[in-house]
Amino acid sequence: MKAFVVDRYQKQAALRLADVPTPELRDDEVLVEVHAAGVNLLDAKIRSGEFKLILPYRLPLILGHDVAGVVVRVGRRVRQFKPGDEVYARVDDFRIGTFAEFVPVKEASLALKPKGLTMEEAASIPLVGLTAWQAMVERAGLKKGQKVFIQAGSGGVGSFAIQLAKHLGATVATTTGTSNVELVRSLGADVVVDYKSQDFETVLRDYDVVLNSQDGKTLDKSLRVLKRGGKLISISGPPDPEFGREIGARGPVRLVMRLLSSGVRRRSRRLGVGYSFLFMKASGSQLREITRLIDAGAIRPVMDRVFPFASTNEALAYVEAGRAKGKVVIKLK
């Protein structure tokens, strides 16, 4: 099969288009013919080597975390899916590889594709949808009437998280550029801070939850817009000791995480707020919950561009530039 491969860790290096063997299928996996694959900043960060401590992949490596496609074969222990099913997933860590013609996916990580979405739209959902779900529902326990600040509202995670938070009954604030103000309002944002002319720290006060996806300076300011007892959930780091325990990291790696996050954890304690790092996990059951929301019209995909498979490197560069409105997808079928 054809696939885009990382040969060595390097920033902004081109992926190599290669002919590689179709992956071996394990007993609890489904082989999916890839029709479309979402492109995420995580792919660029893995290629650059930024996640070597957390995700020590062996190279060469096929990139790609989001998939929508058709089941072509199932492992002998698989019961929920059959050949011909249209499915979507965020594939598991250490089994990534959706920038290819076929990818194996654990049955537990897979869900039937929402009927009303195209393959390209479906491929845009899993990673950002699961990130938002695990932050808003699992980690924050967001409730009706609470206030949440979601950074970068026009991005992939932000555009999904705004819609989910509104569905949960929260008041939503977000940041975006001037040209995207109407977009984030249409998704449900109640308070929109134009970062080109405003500082969110002077506008926002007493928030229950912050979803942080930006740099360290923004992280520090975000702590100060929370009320006492509020929660800051960061998807851009730094990783904390609890995350190290979750992934079963070795002692030296856990020590590095403790040191990296010591400053923000100390500042959060002083302010009486909680800090946690979230690295989302694959989950077919949560995707089924998301499917129900999509089918009910509570959430819609926000797409920027669809690139042909041959232009995967261009798609990755476009995402890395940080200007996408919603999600970028590559199309194979």
Explain what the structure shows.
- With 333 residues, the protein is α/β, with parallel strands linked by helices.
- The longest helix is centred in the C-terminal third of the chain and has 21 residues.
- The mean pLDDT is 96.
- The strands form 3 sheets. Strands 3, 5, 6, 7, 8, 15 and 16 form a 7-stranded mixed β-sheet that branches. Strands 11-10-9-12-13-14 form a 6-stranded parallel β-sheet, with helices on both faces.
- It starts with a strand and ends with a strand.
- Helix content is 32%, strand content 26%.
- It is built from 11 helices and 16 strands.
- The chain folds into 2 domains: 155 residues, Medium-chain alcohol dehydrogenases, catalytic domain (Quinone Oxidoreductase, Chain A, domain 1, Alpha-Beta Complex), CATH 3.90.180; 150 residues, 3-Layer(aba) Sandwich (Rossmann fold), CATH 3.40.50.720.
- Helix 3 packs across helix 4.
Task: Please give the structural blueprint.
Layout: E1 2-6, E2 16-19, E3 29-39, H1 41-48, E4 61-62, E5 66-74, E6 86-90, E7 102-106, E8 110-112, H2 119-123, H3 126-139, E9 147-150, H4 156-167, E10 171-176, H5 181-187, E11 191-194, H6 200-203, E12 207-212, H7 216-223, E13 226-234, H8 241-246, H9 251-271, E14 274-277, H10 284-295, E15 303-308, H11 312-320, E16 327-331
Helix pairs in contact: 3-4
